[in-house]
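Homework help board

Subject: predicted structure for assignment chain

Our instructor gave us this sequence and asked us to write out the predicted structure in token form, then describe one feature. I got the tokens but I'm not sure how to describe them. Can anyone check?
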Amino acid sequence: MFGLGGKICLITGGAGSIGLASARLLQEHGARLVLVDQDAEGLADAARSLGPDVLTVMADVADEGDTARYVAAIVARFGRIDVLFSNAGNFGTVAPIESYPTETFDAVMAVHVRGAFLAAKHAVPHMGRGGSIIITSSVAGLRGDLGVYGYITAKHAQTGLMRVLAKDLAPRGIRVNTINPGPVANGFQQRVEDDLTPLLGRNATQFFDEAIPMGRHATTQEIAASVFYLASDQSAFTTGLTLSVDGGMSV
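My token output:
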């Protein structure tokens, strides 16, 4: 009843750990997959692990021409898009405001905010009733933290974008939500923690584990389970939601 049999699911950032874990779970429930990423090697590895029916497209999500191109490739092959999982992301850096690089701030905003906007702009005309848009925000989109200017600003902005889309697309039967993961045990988070450790003056991984009421980082499979919920008809009457998957960190 709540599977994804035959649904066309587009995942940006599809070669990353959350994108790939979500792809595997959606595929297990019958989805047909399209993965978009800038990482050609990662896309090739993903295609090998997921099988020959997966469409992979190398693209810069912040570039409108690339976005139009990957959407056109999906429509040419499948005719429609049922689920858009806008998951591409970058972190930037951690620094005091007076030394935070403006070009880094712009690059982070471009991927998270412009990328999610462009994906929706070009995908929505090919989505019908029952469609789902999921944007990967973060616990960082619900709080502020020392020196994380680009990433936290972008994650808050994604929530605003989601709310506008949810209001706009509800009459068309398309629901729009964010997932807001806390720290995840993956390479992306490790790089974040490596940047934060000097500013905190202590091990950032331990710092986060102590800040999470459940006492640990999430697994990528746990995040993927929330993606599946929002992609499937289990969430048929859910739109405009910020779904925190953070072990209680935002409480």
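Reply (TA_rk): Your tokens look well-formed. For the description, you could write something like this. Helices lie at 17-28, 40-50, 64-78, 102-123, 149-169, 187-200, 204-211, 220-231. That's the kind of observation they're looking for.
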